[in-house]
Phage portal protein (Nonomuraea gerenzanensis), 403 residues
Amino acid sequence: MGVLARLRAAFNRDAQITTPEELLAAQRGQRTGGGVLVTNDTALRHSAVWACLRVRADLVSTMPVDVYRRVNGVQVEVPKPPVLVNPGGQQIGIMEWLYSTQVDLDRAGNTFGLITERSGVIGPDGRGLPARIDLLALQDVTVRANGATITKYVVAGVEYDPWDVWHEKQFTVAGFPLGLSPVAYAAWGIEESLNAQKFARDWFGGGAIPLAELVNKAKTINKAEAKVAKEHFRASVANGDLFVHGNDWEYRPIQAVAHQSAFIEARQFGLTDIARFFGCPSDLIDAAVSTGHITYATITQRNLQFLIMHLGPAVTRREDALSRGLVPGPRYVKLNRGSLLAMDPEARARTLAARINSRTLAPSEARALEDLPPFTPEQLAEFETLFGSPRTPPTTATSGATG
């Protein structure tokens, strides 16, 4: 039975369900015994998981948040409500809040928070819009639902109505009240990689398998004789002394499997495989790719490809959730993607010059993009001294009919 089918079965049985990765982790723990149990927390021990979550959350959380509305078809920026400045109160600013929620969305498909304050602005549901949202740990939240409709949230044993809880989700499927968890679906790959990591740690710590073996080539020895030989050998080598024996004993160091190329290749493949689940190209987390390297003409092209194919859709979904839940219509929230598409100085200068020459950007707007004030009369006079007065292209007059 698949992960989603097991979740649906559990949900239909008692109308109560935790986030998907917790149920999967419990079932996998029963089956794998002494292996690494993959949960939201243990998955972070894997460098690929940590790196993918960090890259995506870093970028989303540092995108400037703006609020707009359309006036006569023109997008006009309007003041942000306090919840988009300090959503968690004075101690939690918007960047930290966006980072934490993006990590939960990318690893668990869901993020939760208690709405502890409301503004005087009435939202579509007839209640005041949230003015403060205190984020919740994933493991503290359980949901109860009727089909795809959540009826109650249970936080540390306390029940809350849906309008008292901020709930964003991604990786959704029809008829299911929660977003699907990448950690749950990547659990096999994460578990395999973590077990290999644990094996290598135990190996080099001397705890995985014996580091060497003593073989008696002359006869078969019983347990008592083996114990005496072992203690005699250990006593000799413990302080760097010599081990003296006849021609009946042979010492064989066991080959280090953790050094073999197949073992190293398997661990490297795990990085790329896991990166796919988390929507982060493996080259961005310093993992090897199948061709050995990926070359882009410019950093801007690389960032643009990442934005379009991987991060952009998640940003758009977040804009929609923030717009519907935190600002009154017809206002809407935008995360400024331009911060991700920062160009090198030469490429940026060419782009601005092209836009000015094509009359799609005014010189004063270009200066503002560079965080510079408009030109002063003195500066314009300097340009005129150096380059002369700008020439105005002659106009062609239409001659009238002559008789």
Notes: The radius of gyration is 32 Å. Residues 299-326 form the longest helix (28 residues). Residues 173 and 179 are 7 Å apart (CA to CA).
